[in-house]
From TrEMBL:
Keyword Lipid metabolism: no
Pfam family, one: adh_short_C2
Protein family per UniProt: Belongs to the short-chain dehydrogenases/reductases (SDR) family.
Gene3D superfamilies reported in the protein's UniProt record: NAD(P)-binding Rossmann-like Domain
Source species of the chain: Micromonospora solifontis
Superkingdom as given in the UniProt entry: Bacteria
UniProt keywords, alphabetically: Oxidoreductase
Residue ranges occupied by any Ketoreductase domain in the UniProt entry: 7-206
SUPFAM superfamilies, alphabetized: NAD(P)-binding Rossmann-fold domains
UniProt keyword Translocase present: no
UniProt-recorded name of the protein: SDR family oxidoreductase
Length: 246
């Protein structure tokens, strides 16, 4: 038996990058997995096939995390079509950077809608369905701990908000046997931030390990938090950042 047999997970932003790696890893651990994507249906469908290749059920949902109704509907459809919900991974995010006097109201509103409001609403909807042993895992960012370059104030602010969300929900849901934790990935080799990108060498040099993570390495941390061995871990902020914050 694998550690998540009989469980159902929802991974927001699961069509690519860390979200896709997490969705596939949770399936490999035995969970049926729903995932949301915003625009790239073809790529999300590939992730769905990878989940099914593990022998688990996949549910691929189009949902813009900036839309409150779409966020709630993703949770509701997961429960309706996969029968339950045990694990929520709040992974979907936007990364809008620039000088504080160069980002306008639109950028502010979208960042807060996707990176802060959506995790809150998804957790709110999930909490109505999670039972004892339930898991909420938020995906933050290393730049919530350390902003090494200018232009990160908006994104850093949005990801720092997840610390408060995680700790508040951990306290509130703990009596029900539900854990809530936050993973702060460091630089990770994805399409949006490739390890061979123009600034990658400098960014990698800010970590103690001197390299980018593979998405599967972040997914492994999430899978541990989702499993039974992490049942006494809640309200924790876990830096899977290669030593970026030290």
């Amino acid at each position: 038996m694998t550690t998540l047999d009989g469980k159902v997970a929802l991974v927001t932003g699961g069509g690519r990058g860390i979200g896709a790696a997490t969705a596939v890893r949770l399936a490999a651990e035995g969970a049926d997995v729903a995932l949301t994507y915003e625009t790239n249906a073809e790529r999300a469908a590939v992730v769905g096939k990878q989940i099914e290749a593990t022998g688990r059920r996949a549910l691929v949902l189009a949902a813009d995390s900036a839309d409150p109704e779409a966020v709630r509907a993703a949770v509701d459809r997961t429960v309706a079509e996969l029968g339950r919900l045990d694990i929520l991974v709040n992974n979907a995010a936007v990364f809008l950077v620039g000088p504080v006097d160069g980002l306008g109201r639109d950028e502010l509103d979208r960042t807060l809608a996707v990176n802060v409001r959506a995790p809150y609403l998804a957790a709110q909807a999930a909490a109505r369905n999670l039972g004892a042993g339930g898991r909420i895992i938020n995906i933050g960012s290393n730049v919530a701990r350390r902003a090494p370059f200018p232009g990160l104030a908006l994104y850093s602010m949005s990801k720092t908000a997840l610390v408060g969300l995680t700790k508040g929900l951990g306290r509130e849901l703990g009596p029900r046997g539900i854990t809530v934790n936050l993973v702060n990935p460091g630089p990770t080799d994805t399409d949006a931030n490739p390890a061979d990108g123009p600034n990658a060498q400098a960014v990698a040099g800010l970590t103690a390990l001197g390299r980018y993570a593979a998405p599967a390495e972040i997914a492994a941390v999430v899978a541990h938090l989702a499993g039974p061995d992490a049942g006494y871990v809640t309200g924790a902020v876990i830096d899977a950042d290669g030593g970026f914050a030290i």
